[in-house]
User: Fold these one by one.
Assistant:
Number 1:
Amino acid sequence: MKIKMSVLALATAAVFALSSLSSAFAEPIKLKFSHVVAENTPKGQMATKFKDLVAERLKGKVVVEIYPNGQLFGDNKVLEALLLGDVHLASPSLSKFKKYTKKLQIFDLPFLFNDMAAAERFQQSEAGQSLLKTVEKKGLIGLGYMHNGMKQLSAAKALHTPADAKGLKFRIMSSDVLAAQFEALAATPLKKPYSEVFTLLQTKAIDGQENTWSNIHSKKFYEVQDNITSSDHGLLDYMVVTSAEFWKGLPDDVRTELKKALDESIAFGNKVAAEKSKSDKQAIIDSKRTNVIELSKEERQKWIDTMQPVWKKFEAIVGKDMLDAAIASNKE
Ligand code: SIN
């Protein structure tokens, strides 16, 4: 009996020792973060910050690999790739979630937010936070919003008033609101991947596009567009997203630490975004490669009057209460 007991004790100790040994040598969890922009953009810098924080705080447990510039997946494929487990983190623009939820289309409505502070207030409000959850029924988890900034209009031709855009072809992200916005200008919208924009502009297959100062600068769109109208007519922000399967499968302590690192990285990225919307605009002006057009109050009002009727078309889809909450965020 005594012999039997000590054999059992030895076996238990051996199993315990082996399992601690195997966890000591366990492979770290690989977290692939895919995005489409350059590494020096707000999103690119947020991703690098996240990688660094994870390396510092979850050493040996998690390794972050970043795939920028659409190296691995374009935004139109990355959400599918998340669900298949081919990547684990992405942050597409809010305009690219149409297949997963129509509610995020609210963020594309032209002239909805007066400035980035209003967009931030709405995103952090109860209504804004509830929109993060709209992707959950499709197996995704919205971990937070991140800013890029306000969009500007660029074109071969100088755009002072909406009438100047008539008949021109503009590249847009895959959003029906953005399509309606350009149709309101009697222009032709073309949904094309971000990776194709430079070539489409360079070869004059399209006349113009809309984007933030940081994207126009980092992808050199200003080198192939003679004019950029400083219109601030819409928002280009992101949702950082993962798959429920991956996120819920993580050990609790790892998940908590990753979320903390991500929140800090987003706050850092938002600061970069605010700085870059000024410094990249200035760099573009200083380059003298393009003509940056500042609108008079009256000219801007014409853009608002032409584009804002688009809201009515999407009110039922995004919800009247949600729209009212977004409008209300313009007041501090
Ligand atoms: C991005 O900022 O992630 C890309 C935006 C675009 O497709 O224009």
Number 2:
Amino acid sequence: MMINENALPLDYLGRPLQDLRISVTDRCNLRCVYCMPKEVFGSDYPYLARDELLTYEEISRLTRLLAGMGVRKVRLTGGEPLLRHDIERLIEMLARIPDLDLTLTTNGALLTPEKARALRDSGLQRITISLDSLDDSVFASLNDVEFPVGRVLAGIDNAAAAGLTPVKINMVVVRSVNLDSVLPMARYFHGSGHILRFVEYMDVGDSNGWKLDEVVSSAEIIQLIGDELSLEPIEPNYLGEVARRWCYTDGAGEIGLISSVSQPFCGDCTRLRLSARGELFTCLFASSGHDVRSLLRSHVSNEDVSATIRSIWAQRDDRYSDLRSARTVGRPSVEMSYIGG
Ligand code: SAM
Ligand code: SF4
Ligand code: SF4
């Protein structure tokens, strides 16, 4: 594991802080059944009010402090980050922080050619776009708002044309819904220059009715694709990389596997999450966060904010996925759309 000498102390389990995921909104224009099921996230859902959200100035101040403590990779997410008004302004502010790798994850619905160029021009370096099937009826049964595949594919093209490359495509596989979409997706993106990543369906939050038998393991995906398109494993780009990489032996690119359930990677987890409301979460599966918004709004010095973060990180002992099998029934967990995927 790479350790920045000026960084925060290691956490309780010896892990450095390197990545920050920032949720800029808890709202979304899709209702993916594994993330924001309609029955829970209806029109009467108590979304955060505007003044509850961290402002861009607050996010940028916190990110700058965290960058000083070792954070090198920042991902904007949500909810749907492109729903947040003038997100380019935040990107511009973050892009001024030296040596940060700045990326964003989106469902691609709002990724017009103009939007993609504006994101790039404001300093975004790369983008991940989520797409779970090439089949409209399968995709609709997952996004639950009849959102068409063609619009996401257009978003992917627009991102690539704007230079947000390589574009990564995230596909969550839910056995009874889109297992049959795995091969068509692999064929479509084979040789495209984009990196298709298969994400194991996770039990995050309390609302998606997760069942272990709906999870399709990365090993099964590799077998399925490898039977048709020959694959071999390749080295990670850096230690602690979340996705395991496999490349096509015909030279037509690579795929990624995010095996949070079948091969947990808590031992290398260097991620901190900032919710749209300004709480820091030390694990995707945490039941509660640490409020930093009130700290930021109470005119404390940067040194005091940093001291609070140091103490949060020093006490971090999360390794939920490693312990998943021993999960306590009924333990409350925070929704992915709130904490940021
Ligand atoms: N709305 C954006 C999007 O969908 O790309 C960004 C936020 S979303 C929460 C981030 C990523 O989390 C997406 O790629 C999504 O597919 C993934 N995700 C959401 N719920 C999940 C679950 N239960 N298991 C695995 N991945 C999930
Ligand atoms: Fe929205 Fe992304 Fe969650 Fe789907 S996965 S509901 S697009 S936040
Ligand atoms: Fe990190 Fe928590 Fe996921 Fe483990 S379960 S990899 S500690 S976010």
